[in-house]
Amino acid sequence: MTDTISSINPATGDSIWEAPVGDADAEVGVARGGWAQWAAQSHSFRIETMRRFANIVRGKLDEFADLISRETGKPLWEARTEVEAVVNKVDISAEAYFERTPSRNKQGELREQNALRHKPHGVLAVLGPFNFPAHLPNGHIVPALIAGNAVVFKPSEKTPATGEFLVNCYLEAGVPENVIRLLVGGPEEGKALAAHEGIDGLLFTGSARAGLALHKQFGKRPDKILALELGGNNPLVVWDSPDADAAAAIIVQSAYMTAGQRCTAARRLIVKDGEHQPLIDAIRKIIDRIIVGPPDADPAPFMGCLIDNRSAEAVTDGFLDLMMKGGSPIAHLRRIDDDKPFLTPGLIDVTAIEKRDDEEIFGPLLQVIRVPDFASAMQEANNTRFGLSASLLSGSPDLYNRFWAQSRAGIVNWNKPTNGASSAAPFGGIGMSGNHRPSAYYAADYCAYPVASAEAPSARAAIKIGLKDPEMERTASDES
Ligand code: NAD
Ligand code: SIN
Questions:
Q1: Which residue has the least CA distance to atom 40 on ligand 1?
Q2: Architecture of domain 234-421
Q3: I need a surface site. Which of 208, 293, 381, 457 has the fewest CB within 10 A?
Q4: DSSP state of 301
């Protein structure tokens, strides 16, 4: 009997989609048959195809957003912004392709041409996460296709219907069936795809746990490209910020948007001890007004639910664990309904916990850490093995200069949220947040490799040094 994957609407518990688990071997085989022909097409042909894809997605915006919100539990308004990001990715990727992987030709001293061009890798595997099930895999797939690769895409087992919808849009736009392949499955199929000899690389967005395993596996394979976009334990520092209400709004947006299920979500709020109370009160005031509810509720919720009950339990356990270790709750993180993964936003002061775990708790939970001075704030901000995003809320440009210089993260913001990263900039982190292959604007870099060529229309060469003089050779042999 074939195994099936079914997708559950986390807000209702209803099954919304079901399909048999796919076969990595078969999908890679098809893509290997297709990529060379796709790579041989002109760039403008591939970019035009992707522009058609953008138009198709734009035309299906409502339908697509509805599916994403039903499959992830995120509010409908937020799912719409995700679909808009999918559309916008095409123009950004076309621009990035020419800027990051340009062709150029320079004349050399002997009138030869020194050309720089880029070639696609071949077949790239894309493994997607559940939290942005369309936007994030699309952020790998569009640049990969523009560069001339074929793609085998395995969406998260929690959001396969969105993955299928996305792939159908590429196909409708004219991407050949043997160039974009959908692999339905879970971690086992992900492992089979990642280990397949027929892929030339893996573009992964997901947890540090899976990313680390993949990094070990690819450590023996310098012949394959590996791009890892992983998690974070992101700090948000507030120091001499004159407007507590504005700071609180940015903090709430950073920590609780998408119910905290963003890799760039603020997890640790670092504040000046003794001056923190007005800020905490302002955050508390907003938390008390946050609407948590089903995606299509009216009035619209700020937060939907988590992806499933298991995740909600893990985040609730994380909150209880912090309490047991000495944390003081400011706003209790609670399950609203025992059967569904709706959580209220949690805020907890963990200053008293001596040894804090450096884990990404993937939900609406923000930990407050009070420190005496800015140097301690910086030390605390960098006190993590991750390094994805960091933000400073402060009225002082000098403090921001220090913050920027000393922060160890791939995204460093000032008076802006830790999340909401721009597709028009590189998106990636250091430490356990990735392997120095940022995505978004820099995705072009890992979708093609540079080829340097010295080129002349005919072979014209002479060796002018280090050879014996033929005249002298002849005389020497005549004399002997
Ligand atoms: P996950 O690691 O559980 O799964 C991601 C994908 O990998 C899924 O398709 C899954 O089936 C597959 N997978 C899981 N284990 C695997 C393994 N050992 N080998 C091969 N494939 C495997 O991640 P998730 O729970 O879907 O997503 C949430 C995580 O993703 C969070 O940690 C979040 O921070 C991170 N994330 C990072 C970014 C970024 O760009 N840096 C963006 C979004 C999410
Ligand atoms: C994410 O990719 O998880 C979030 C992106 C962002 O909001 O910065």
A1: 229
A2: 3-Layer(aba) Sandwich (3.40)
A3: 457
A4: P
pTM score of the predicted model: 0.96
Is residue 157 within 6 Å of ligand 1 at its C-beta? yes
Q: Look up the CATH number of domain 4-230+434-455.
A: 3.40.605.10
Taking the centre of ligand 1 as the mean of its atom positions, its distance from the CA of residue 104, in whole angstroms, is: 37
Which residues contact ligand 2 via a Cβ below 6 A?
131-132, 136, 262-264, 419-421
What is each CA distance from 318 to 24, 315, 335, in whole angstroms? 35, 5, 13
* Topology alike, domains 4-230+434-455 and 234-421: no
Q: Which of 78, 164, 229, 360 is catalytic?
A: 229
Angle among Cα 81, 262, 256 to the nearest 5 degrees reads 85
Residue type (1 letter), 362: F
Q: What is the mean pLDDT of each run of 10 residues along the chain (480 residues)?
A: 90 97 98 98 98 98 98 98 98 98 89 93 98 98 98 98 98 98 98 98 98 97 98 98 97 98 98 97 98 97 98 98 98 96 98 96 98 98 98 98 98 98 97 98 98 92 90 76
